[in-house]
Design brief:
With about 1050 residues, the chain is α/β, with parallel strands linked by helices. It has five domains: about 180 residues, Chloramphenicol Acetyltransferase; about 250 residues, Chloramphenicol Acetyltransferase, CATH 3.30.559; about 375 residues, ANL, N-terminal domain (Rossmann fold, 3-Layer(aba) Sandwich), CATH 3.40.50; about 90 residues, ANL, C-terminal domain (GMP Synthetase, Chain A, domain 3), CATH 3.30.300.30; about 100 residues, Non-ribosomal Peptide Synthetase Peptidyl Carrier Protein, Chain A (Orthogonal Bundle). The chain is built from 31 helices and 41 strands. The strands form ten sheets. Strands 5-6-7-2-13-12 form a six-stranded mixed sheet, sandwiched between helices. A hairpin with a 2-residue loop joins β6 and β7. α7 packs across α12 and α15 crosses α16. The longest helix is centred in the middle third of the chain and has 20 residues. It is elongated and about 120 Å long. It starts with 5 loop residues before the first strand and ends with a helix.
Length: about 1050
């Protein structure tokens, strides 16, 4: 470029700085690309067409602007006096229509991939393609670096007025406007000190962006591909919205802000909502700026508190007041705001932006003009944000429209379609319910509500099982004992017992219990080791009408005494070989001292009577007794036969701990369905080789186990095993793939309070995380928000369970019973309840439920919301990692630290640094644990669940380089000098992070330029973000130099340079050859 051709020079606007940085960071991405097309039919006046564009290039300096950043402290834009008209003509009239379509797609895609060289003006590309004799396709491509949507509208309106005037030999005068340089100068003079105070106050205590999507790390994601969907509000709703804003002195923009904030709150569960708003940049005091052409828009954070108790209109008016104040600072650079907030560079303020598109579009030219017609008009603009919501207000007879432009690497089309529908529903309810509270506004339409509540939340498949059927587990056992008395009922340590023997022994003990005063509703403790005697005791309690209370011999004496006192248990069935740990008030009935039975036990319990009491850990540290009925247990046992197809030929493994409700599930599955129950010895009950031996030797056909237990079980070929049920924890897909081949693999879910079992899913789809499925018959599972309203598919909510299996409540604890067992909001039956599980899940698109975690497992660390399960899922995606769990633990100085406990695969040489590096490529900084503990196995409780208390505390000084390491090579020394100059530091270490030391995106651009100048190599800008240390950058520079030298082929020069390097740098160069 000749200096004489330079007309003007000025800095970049805040938005231009961000766009330039992003475009250099991801040069292959089509973000910020502008595309406008139309078909012109009729006469084309080629000379007038060209002249109109030449006049526009002369008139608007932004169309003659280029951008420069190399070897200067701050990027600038240069306006050239003259540029060439970037218009090409193509003639495709000889090509058939189908081929033309392919060529058009190819032309568009090629132009996007080619992008623009920002150092050369104009940043504009146009093509007139002749399709038929009088049919032309016009393609116009530009970039947001020079134009915004408002300006594009003005530009084309001016173009067609010029074109018409030139055809008709008339004069057309473009209205006076402010040159873009005036705007830049105005921005430069604004008070950033005042702006800083405003933004720090507005964003005080901001933690992390609204978690609207699964995170994909910048730089490693596939190229962004934008899609678009739209929905139109009804004509009535559009009219009602306009009437609402006029009556309440609001703007449609305010209503749009409120609707999007409410949707984000409902989708994320957050109350403090921050998203981006695209501002026109034309609300300042500069005159005639409305007619100016350039890049004026800016995207800034809008923060809205969503209180469900708030009334709609006052809430919207508060939003409008805050937004009006924000407009005073619309000139503020977004990057500057992020720095003022103290956010890490890798953490954005928001993932979505909302734009209210009220361009001053003169649309007459789109429809027709002179001797031609315009059709197939299309205008597309993209940003680097994953989700862009555009509200197009109603105009004349046209209704309001909502568009969503989205990156398909983050969202699928069905998710966006649902989101659009929910936003439309919210806007429509705003228009007709101005006096309601936010909690009264539903996102779901009538059809969606019906699908979720009446179909997905209930079992859609007909069942032969009737919830109130009188035959419970003990009645079913007796029936099978009468039908097949000589069939094997239990197997233990080489000993077998038939159904007749088991039934007789249970009758004899039940008779003794009756003699001791046991009657319906009486609690009976069973203090026995796992053995056939334990089964006899359980059955005898039920035969006598009592409530079975399991007392595992391995629980601490203090806990046992608490349970006995809380339940007022006076009688405990025990054995002579067990130590007497009972308080004096409790009578021990020795099971091994049998008496002769004198009468039959005929008064069996009914479905409404209590069957058992299980004590679970309470959040306060005090165990809570859960009371379960025979109706719920009977439903489970009957469904085990229907769903698992359990028959008398099956052999069911009893692996769960005695004190765990899964043990009742296993006993009922076998003895309530005529199958054999195989009891392990103490050694065989722990996952490992001995358990594998039990499964093999006993030809087990059905097994229920926790995922932790399954992970510790050595894989072996078990040809008789036809069903594996996992329960109790979240299950990883890799266990399905390992153990599920050739057999049925079910993932079950059900809290104790819901009667052991509430949902099931038969797994099979490779690559998909196992869902917990759908409700079993006679059970409902709802996913609700804080207002007890159903949430849409894909939106997390809390799981609530209802149905015949529900517990009666907590023993002697009316407060927690009332808090956890709430009135059923979707039932007309008086007294019916839902259990509030504290579990978080979401409906998938097919109606299955995806388990996410606990409400009390979510971590907030340094202001960031973190789901440990997400980190665990990424870790276990590493082929060298067998298992992983992530917790927030306290170190030696009481500092809370995110800690990962990792079990490597057998034979792996995995290190803590390998784990750190692996996560660094996939997760943002705040989600990377500060400590990695490598373990041979994860500790589990007697119930087979992860034992959190047994996990070691993290080493306080793990990881990171505490002592500054100075540069070790000439390359590192040169890099350090550049860093010190850019960051204004006295010294830096090779492991220091550029951004943690004060670097930002513009300084990264300067660093990239200085590297190119100093080392004669060009590193992609993104690499500075991916490898922001001197150690890593130095390695990359030496590697690039070696590759360039290899291409150059000058041996003497190469040897001379090699001699100047350190041994390590020389080794890197040699390895690059």
């Amino acid at each position: 470029m000749k200096p004489t051709n330079i007309e003007d020079m000025y800095n970049l606007s805040p938005a231009q700085e961000g766009i330039l940085f992003h475009s250099l960071y991801q040069p292959e991405a089509p973000d910020y690309f502008l595309e406008l097309e139309f078909v012109m039919k009729g006469g084309l006046h080629r000379h007038a067409f060209e002249q109109a564009w030449r006049q526009l290039l002369d008139k608007h300096s932004v169309l003659r602007t280029s951008f420069h950043w190399d070897n200067i402290s701050t990027p600038v834009q240069l306006v050239q006096r003259e540029v060439e008209l970037p218009l090409e003509y193509l003639d495709w009239t000889s090509i058939d229509a189908e081929t033309r379509k392919v060529k058009l797609d190819g032309y568009r895609e090629g132009s996007r991939k080619r992008g623009f060289d920002f150092t050369k003006a104009p940043i504009l590309r146009m093509a007139l393609i002749r399709l038929e004799d009088k049919v032309w396709q016009f393609i116009w491509h530009s970039h947001h670096l020079v134009l915004d949507g408002w300006s594009t509208s003005l530009l084309f309106s001016q173009f067609f007025h010029l074109y018409h005037s030139l055809i008709e030999s008339k004069q057309f005068h473009i209205e006076s406007y402010r040159p873009f340089g005036d705007y830049i100068e105005w921005v430069r003079k604004q008070d950033l000190v005042k702006a800083e105070a405003y933004w720090k106050r507005t964003l005080a205590e901001f933690g992390s962006p609204v978690p609207l999507m699964e995170y994909i790390k910048s730089g490693t994601q596939p190229a962004a591909r934008f899609e678009k969907q739209s929905v139109e509000l009804s004509a009535d709703s559009s009219i009602q919205l306009q009437a609402l804003v006029q009556k309440q002195h609001l703007t449609l923009n305010t209503v749009a802000l409120g609707a999007w904030a409410l949707l984000l709150s409902r989708y994320s569960g957050e109350k403090d909502i921050v998203f981006g708003a695209s501002l026109s940049g034309r609300s300042g005091p500069l005159t005639a700026i409305q007619k100016a052409v350039g890049m004026f828009i800016n995207t800034l954070p809008v923060r809205i508190c969503v209180s469900e108790e708030a009334t709609l209109i006052p809430w919207l008016k508060t939003i409008q007041e805050h937004f009006t104040e924000l407009l005073q600072y619309e000139y503020t650079p977004l990057l500057q705001i992020q720095q003022w907030c103290g956010l890490p560079k890798s953490t954005p303020l928001f993932h979505s932006i909302l734009a209210f598109e009220n361009y001053p579009m003169d649309k007459q030219w789109i429809q027709s003009g002179g001797d031609y017609d315009i059709s197939d008009f299309r205008f597309e603009q993209q940003t680097n944000y994953p989700l862009n919501v555009i509200i197009i207000p109603p105009a004349g007879s046209t209704a309001a429209t909502v568009q969503i432009h989205y990156q398909s690497v983050y969202f699928d089309s069905s998710t966006i379609a649902s989101m659009l529908g929910h936003l439309k529903t919210i806007l429509e309810q705003f228009s007709v319910r101005p006096s309601c509270r936010l909690q009264e506004i539903s996102m779901l339409n009538v059809v969606e509500q019906e699908t979720i509540v009446s179909n997905w939340s209930r079992n859609p498949h007909p069942s032969q099982v009737v919830a109130d059927e009188g035959e419970g587990v003990i009645q079913r056992f007796e029936r099978y004992a009468g039908q097949n008395p000589e069939r094997i009922a239990t197997v233990y340590d080489g000993m077998e017992m038939t159904y007749r023997q088991l039934n007789n022994r249970a009758d004899m003990l039940a008779y003794r219990l009756r003699k001791h005063g046991i009657s319906p509703g009486t609690m009976v403790g069973v203090y026995l080791e796992r053995s056939p005697d334990w089964i006899i005791a359980m059955l005898s309690v039920w035969k006598a009408g009592g409530i079975y209370l399991p007392l595992d011999p391995r629980i601490p004496e203090e806990r046992m005494n608490f349970i006995l006192h809380e339940t007022k248990t006076a009688l405990v069935i025990t054995q002579e070989q067990l130590p007497n740990r009972m308080p004096p008030s409790v009578t021990g009935l020795r099971l091994d001292a049998f008496a002769k039975q004198e009468e039959m036990v005929t008064n069996l319990p009914g479905p409404g009577e209590l069957a058992y009491c299980i004590f679970t850990s309470g959040s306060t540290g005090v165990p809570k007794g859960v009371l379960l009925s025979h109706r719920g247990l009977g439903n489970v046992v009957r469904l085990q036969k229907e769903i698992f197809k359990v028959t008398a030929e099956d052999r069911v493994a009893q692996l769960a701990s005695i004190g765990f409700d899964a043990s009742v599930f296993e006993v009922g599955m076998a003895l309530g369905n005529g199958a054999a129950l195989c009891l392990p010895t103490r050694e065989e009950s722990m996952p490992g080789p001995r358990m594998s031996g039990l499964l093999q030797e006993q030809k087990i056909t059905v097994m229920t186990i926790t995922p932790s237990g399954l992970s510790a079980l050595p894989y072996s070929d078990l040809p008789h095993l036809r069903i594996i049920n996992t329960a109790g924890e979240s299950c990883d897909q890799k266990w399905v793939e390992l153990w599920g081949t050739g057999r049925i693999f079910n993932n079950l879910y059900g809290p104790t309070e819901a009667g052991i079992w509430a949902t099931w899913h038969t797994c099979g789809q490779v690559g998909r995380k196992p869902a917990i499925g759908r409700p079993i018959p006679n059970t409902q599972v709802y996913i609700l928000d804080e207002n007890l309203c159903p949430v849409p598919a894909g939106v997390p909510g809390e799981l609530y369970i209802g149905g015949c299996g529900l517990a009666r409540g907590y023993l002697n604890d009316p407060y927690h019973t009332a808090a956890s067992f709430i009135p059923h909001p979707f039932s007309g039956q008086p007294g019916e309840r839902l259990y509030r599980t504290g579990d978080i899940g979401k409906f998938l698109a097919d109606g299955n439920i995806d388990f996410i975690g606990r409400t009390d497992q979510q971590i907030k660390l340094r202001g960031f919301r973190i789901e440990p399960g997400e980190i665990e899922a990424v870790l276990t995606g590493n082929q060298d990692i067998k298992e992983a769990v992530v917790l927030l633990r306290k170190g030696e100085r009481e500092a809370r630290r995110l800690t990962a406990y990792v079990v490597p695969q057998v034979g792996s040489e995995l290190s803590s640094k390998d784990c750190y590096d692996y996560l660094s490529d996939k997760l943002p900084d705040f989600m990377i644990p500060s400590a990695f503990m490598l373990m041979k196995e994860l500790p589990v409780t007697v119930n087979g669940k992860l034992d959190h208390q047994a996990l070691p505390s993290p080493a306080e000084n793990w990881g990171g380089e505490e002592v500054k390491v100075l540069p070790r090579t000439p390359t590192e020394s040169a890099l350090a000098l550049i860093w010190e100059e850019l960051l204004e530091l006295d010294s830096v270490g090779v492991y220091d992070n550029f951004f943690e030391k004060g670097g930002h995106s513009l300084l990264a651009v300067q660093l990239s330029s200085r590297i190119k100048e100093t080392f004669r190599v060009e590193l992609p800008l993104r690499y500075i973000f991916e490898a922001p240390t001197i150690d890593k950058l130095g390695y990359a520079i030496v590697r690039e130099q070696a590759e360039l030298q290899q291409e150059d082929g000058d041996l003497e020069k190469w040897l001379d340079e090699l001699e100047q390097l350190s041994d390590e740098e020389a080794r890197i160069r040699m390895n690059a050859l």
